[in-house]
Amino acid sequence: MNTIGKDVIVEQEINKSSFITYLKLVTTPLDAKNYIKEIKELHPNATHHVTAYLVGPTGEHGHANDDGEPSGTAGLPVLDVFKKNDITNFVCIVVRYFGGIKLGAGGLVRAYSSSASLALKEAGTQPIINYQTLELTFNYGFMNIIENKLKNYEIVSKGFTTNVTLTIKVPESDITTLKEILITLTNNQIIIK
Asked: According to the model, what pLDDT value does residue 29 have?
């Protein structure tokens, strides 16, 4: 799964209606709901506030709302744009100010889909990286060589007693290789938890 690269706001006009799309990175359904509330307060006179979000490692927490548009013509088309691109951990709100020209069901689906697509294109995507924490305990003599090997990883904490203890954050995809390298570098004189 992927997520969006950055938060964006994009606007387009379709047949005199203004569509303002807000796309934001979120990690919980509550964050999504709070952002939806914030945008509704920002645009109290808008005709519609169409919303969609997916949250969770596999997008298991989802929501779509047409907000008064004909059923299935707004919220689900927005959500589908992100589902088709394997995107999670986002909230998308398309604010519509009606311009006086009715778009019809097909026109609404195209308008809301294109608004979401435009925002996603502007935001870009990035892979979701799952991390694990490793605790490394080793002799002081290995400090420089190990710290050099760990320069691309986040060191969460350091402890110095009779041995050195480092707690590091590592992408799950790197764990097996990193363990093998550290065991080789220390001649198996490292404890990895």
From this structure: 96
d(CA 15, CA 32): 29
CB of 107 closer than 8 Å to CB of 72: no
Q: Which amino acid is at 187?
A: N
Which residues are registered as beta bridge partners of 158?
Answer: 166
Task: Inform me whether the pLDDT recorded for 172 exceeds 90.
Answer: no
Contact 26, 53 (CB under 8 A): yes
- 3-state per-residue secondary structure call for 50-99: EEEEEECCCCCEEEEECCCCCCCCCHHHHHHHHHHCCECCEEEEEEEECC
Q: What is the pTM of this model?
A: 0.76
Sequence-ordered list of residues with C-beta below 8 angstroms from that of 2, at least 6 positions apart, any chain: 85, 86, 87, 88, 125, 126, 127, 128
Structure-token pair, residue 166: 């480092």
Estimate to the nearest angstrom the gap between the alpha carbon of 154 and the chain centroid. 20
Task: Look at the alpha carbons of 75, 81, 173, 170 in this order and tell me if their dihedral is positive or negative.
Answer: negative
CA distance 22 to 38: 11
Kindly compute the dihedral angle of the four CA atoms of residues 76, 3, 46, 16, in this order, to the nearest 10 degrees. -80
